[in-house]
Amino acid sequence: MSERKGGIHAVILACPGSDGEGCRYSVCLKASLHEHHTVMNASTARRSTLIPAAADRPGDDPIFQLNGEATRRAQSGESIVNATLGALMEDDGTLAILPTVVEALRQVPAKRAAAYAPISGDAPYLAAVIEDVYGGTPLAAQCVAAATPGGTGALHHAIALFLEPGQDLLTTDFHWGPYDTLASQARRGVRTVRMFDARGGFDLAAYEAGLSRCLADQGRALVFLNTPCHNPTGYSLDEREWREVARITRAAGAQAPVAFLVDMAYARFGTPELQRWQHHVEPIVETCTVLTAWTASKSLAQYGSRIGALLAASSDPAERERIKNALAYACRGTWSNCNHLGILAAIELLTKPELRAAVETERQRLVALLDERVAVFNRAARAAGLRYPRYEGGFFVSVFAPDAERVAAAMRADGVYVVPMEGAVRVALCSTPAAAVPRLVASLAKALGSQA
Ligand SMILES: Cc1ncc(COP(=O)(O)O)c(C=O)c1O
Questions:
Q1: How many A from CA of 266 to the centre of ligand 1?
Q2: What is the pTM of this model?
Q3: Residue 294 pLDDT more than 80?
Q4: Angle at 422 between CA 407 and CA 394, to 5 degrees
Q5: What is the reported pLDDT for 32?
Q6: Count of CB atoms within 10 A of residue 382's CB?
Q7: Which of 63, 120, 134, 228 could form a disulfide with 274 if both were Cys (CB 3.0 to 4.6 A apart)?
Q8: Which residue has better confidence, 203 or 24?
């Protein structure tokens, strides 16, 4: 098995205080953070009222620092391409939103929104989310769910309920940095398997070995798989890879407790074929609990409304009941209730056919906006000979770069901002107009070329 816990991920574990997009991308700030920590370790131990684990958290977020620098330079009149931030922006640089969603939020009666939501979320909301993900498949009848603040809350509950303290969740070496933060905050860890094999496909052998090692080491496993449109690489599992992942996971679940979580944060921005992954989880649920982290942050362009849910599918009705109770208990013990305004608006948006259709049409405009950027990127990047994973849609793509920090610094000198990681730079096409993509690719190719 090829595991990678060093590099950027070691940096992330050392700085789990950021709750935004940040820490996994902190390579560029590694040296300064390290110095900062060394000083803090010596002095805070004597005088902090915080417990030691919390006394040494960094307050700075590398992505927001990069974004801040890009914005300052743009405001001072420089021509800047800022491909750092993870929200879908219109070509004019403003946040892309869905008018029907905004209107639905406005229409919620004030006194209903102001009242507490039920601890696990309103029943029609949970039913609507289950239908949204698994409608038309046998899994819908095998699911229980709880409302969470965004997908992040769903990931939190998965970690808290399916791993013992001290155990590790299993995910790919390239992954969303807050997985580390969430695990560390909950006193759990993260172990990784190599994401890409020598041919650039999903490394199934590494996954199989990693899962088997996990079971041998800790007698249970919690897997996080972010597909389609993986953050940060843009990769989506294809049909064959999904089938194999299902076979491997199902076999592991026959040996020990395995919870398999699909993080579908960006799923609505994949091609229509990529959105039909549900049938692959049907065999997995025969032996495992299948969790799904659902969020409206991207699908309804409501990052700030914190509308999300954790779905749990099990073939055993008694286990479903246990999970339902455990979810409710965890909600009460973590945040009590979620944003009722968001939940009530989501019920309307997900269940009223005319609103669903309107949202779908408005979202298609955003998907088309992003797809155009993806197409321009793929054309330019192939012509420039860049090495990057298969990219068919989604907010981000990562381009492999042995010395990512130096590449990103060279690009900044050209006025182009990307996020350096271990072994790659992340390009947020979600915030880059199509017209700016050729310049971005040219700068990237130049920086990579000068590295050789
Ligand atoms: C891979 C991934 N999973 C989950 C999330 C959860 O986001 P939120 O909590 O806003 O729903 C994000 C957000 O950026 C993400 O990139």
A1: 8
A2: 0.90
A3: yes
A4: 85
A5: 33
A6: 11
A7: 228
A8: 203
